[in-house]
Write a structure and sequence with these properties.
364 residues; alpha/beta; Rossmann fold; 2 domains; six-stranded parallel beta sheet; globular
Length: 364
């Protein structure tokens, strides 16, 4: 049985993509281990079909965290049994590369995003230069890999001459039934820079129902400050990080989903967020951005309204239109029912397993 070791820097309980990937490969006959971090407030690990291990770190954020985590990950990978090591994004790539060379193991790169092109990195020139040099050094040395959509795969091919597969980050199918919608708007996912909370929160002054935010991130303190500044304590409710099953309950009950990000980083402009597909699986009409990858899907599956310029005015107009136009809302719900049959993990899991069988281990 081939042993696969996947490496991430986050808390394993909340990483639904890695839970799906590792479960699919475990079910396909691989021995899978997912390695992540343990934070001070981390709950006990949830039960999974694959093995899990969390590394304890003294530092929680910043440069010292990345340095410490990479050292701890390097030392752990030196001795753990494996046939292939998989780096999830750029922040685990260096120890995976070094250990794979030293121990003669197969190495794979799983790119969830264009890491260097995230707004929180692009806006910090010194930080950007460090990560970019690492990317330029490492990516050509990872000929095996996959990413979340075709535009990002093409970007990697043009930049580094690597031919990465596409495995979309879509959820497992929800058991479909019409849930009674409750009068609130939902944002789920990272509360980070580039997620447009500077415009989402002021937009709530012109929307009658409240916004529930499920997630955490590097913009949380600023977001809470904006709520107080605009006197919206009763209209914007922060729930923090939620277990996947609890989050799903909110998604099934919400009236409208929000998927708003700015276009200042190439990662945002070309990416497809997890929540876009989660809303579809829940049959939830959404207000989303109209960037190329989203526009292509909206033309096929009109699951909500797309906006090109995510200002407070455009956000409030689109949300109110979905809430008040019953015909439009019903049409978006029906589009979700169609889209969910195509855009789900049952289809993508087969692509993932086939990739490991035919590319990583060259098995027929």
């Amino acid at each position: 049985m081939k042993r696969l070791v996947f490496c991430v820097t986050n808390d394993l309980n909340y990483d639904q993509r890695m839970q799906r990937c590792c479960s699919a490969l475990q079910e396909a006959g691989y021995d899978v281990l997912l390695v992540g971090r343990k934070r001070k407030q981390s709950p006990a690990l949830s039960s999974q079909s694959f093995r899990q291990h969390r590394l304890n770190c003294w530092f929680e954020t910043g440069k010292l965290f990345y340095l410490e985590y990479n050292i701890r990950l390097f030392l752990y990978l030196l001795f753990v049994k494996s046939d292939a090591l998989v780096a999830i994004d750029l922040d685990t790539i260096f120890p995976v590369y070094v250990v794979s060379r030293w121990r003669n193991k197969v190495r794979v790169y799983d790119a969830h995003e264009l890491f260097c092109e995230m707004k929180e990195i692009v806006d910090r020139p010194a930080i950007y230069r460090v990560w970019k040099k690492l990317e330029q050094w490492m990516l050509p040395r990872f000929p095996l890999g996959y990413t979340v959509n075709q535009p990002i795969a093409e970007w990697f091919k043009q930049a580094y001459k690597v031919d990465y597969a596409v495995i979309r980050n879509v959820p497992k199918p929800y058991p479909y039934e019409m849930h009674e919608r409750q009068p609130f708007i939902l944002y789920q996912g990272a509360v980070n820079e580039g997620r447009c909370f500077e415009t989402i929160i002021p937009a709530m002054k012109f929307i009658q129902v409240p916004l529930i935010v499920c997630g955490d991130g590097n913009f949380m303190e600023q977001a809470k400050a904006l709520v107080k500044e605009h006197q919206l304590d009763e209209k914007v409710i922060f729930k923090g990080m939620l277990a996947p099953q609890v989050l799903k309950e909110y998604t099934l009950k919400a009236a409208v989903g929000l998927n708003i990000i700015d276009s200042k980083g190439l990662n945002n402009y070309w990416s497809l967020s997890n929540r876009f597909f989660d809303y579809i699986q829940a049959g939830l009409p959404q207000v989303t951005v109209n960037y190329p990858a989203y526009r292509q899907l909206l033309e096929t599956y009109p699951v909500g309204l797309g906006i090109t310029d995510p200002t407070s005015t455009e956000i409030s107009i689109a949300v109110n239109k979905l809430l008040n136009d019953k015909a439009l809302y019903t049409s978006a719900e029906q589009a979700c029912k169609i889209a969910r049959e195509e855009l789900n993990w049952e289809k993508e899991a087969k692509i993932l397993v086939n990739y490991y069988q035919t590319k990583v281990f060259c098995r027929n």
